[in-house]
Design brief:
This protein has 141 residues and is α/β, with parallel strands linked by helices. 38% of the residues lie in helices and 21% in strands. Strand 1, helix 1 and strand 2 form a beta-alpha-beta unit. It is globular.
């Protein structure tokens, strides 16, 4: 899957890129700002975006998610400690991974997102298939 990584903390961003690539994903980024994120998507939009909410340029990952959804129909997963803000954007996001998180949480959350993108209803996913620290949203945009 082609995944955009938007994370302004360099070490976390590099870790995400590394684990996603090792799991066989094509990774766009990392991007630390909204401008960088959208520029990376111009030629070939991602299939999924993994977004921090607080970004370096003062923009929000929620704004990035709305732009990605509006321009290209790209679904997002937030990876953030700002869970309340993430929930407020549940209309355009698949869910939120609560920071701090384990590598396995990220990979299993992407698997759950893929199932939803392939047509599964979020509420029908077995709770045991969802990793600890991942909240999937019942209504997705």
């Amino acid at each position: 899957m082609r995944i955009l990584v938007v994370e302004d903390e360099a070490l976390i961003a590099l870790l995400l890129v590394e684990i996603l690539a090792a799991d066989g994903h094509e990774v766009l980024g990392p991007a630390a700002t909204m401008e960088q994120a959208l520029a990376l998507c111009e030629d070939a939009p991602p299939q999924l975006a993994l977004l921090d909410i607080g970004l370096r340029d003062g923009n929000s990952g929620v704004e990035v998610a709305r732009a990605l959804h509006g321009r290209w129909g790209v679904p997002s997963i937030f990876a953030s400690s700002q869970v309340c803000e993430a929930r407020q954007a549940s209309d355009i996001a698949l869910g939120c991974i609560r920071k701090p998180y384990a590598v396995e949480t990220v990979l299993r959350s992407i698997e759950a997102a893929r199932a939803v993108m392939d047509g599964a209803e979020p509420r029908t996913l077995a709770p045991s298939s969802l990793p600890r620290g991942f909240e999937i949203y019942a209504a997705t945009g």
